[in-house]
Amino acid sequence: MIHLLEDFCDFLTDSPTSYHAALEISERLASLDYTPLVMDKPWKLEKEKKYFVMLEGSIASFILPKKKPTQMSIIGSHTDSPALKLKPHPEFHKSNMQLVGVEVYGGPILPTWFNRDLAIAGQVIVTNKKGEKEKHLVFLSDTPLLIPLLAPHLDREAYKKGLVFNKQDHLAPIASLKEEKLDTPYLEELLRREITFEKLLDFDLFLVPIDPPRYLGKDHEMLASYRLDNLTSVHAALAAFGHYKDPPTHTLPLGLFWDHEEVGSSTRIGAASPFFEDIYRRIVSFYGLSQEEETIARHKSLCLSVDVTHALNPNYEKKYDPNHSPLLGGGVTVKYNANQRYSTSGFGAACVAQLCDQLDLKLQKFANRSDNPAGSTVGPLFATKLGIETVDIGLAQLSMHATREVIACQDQIDLTALLTYFLLREEK
Question: Which pTM value belongs to this model?
Answer without folding.
Answer: 0.96
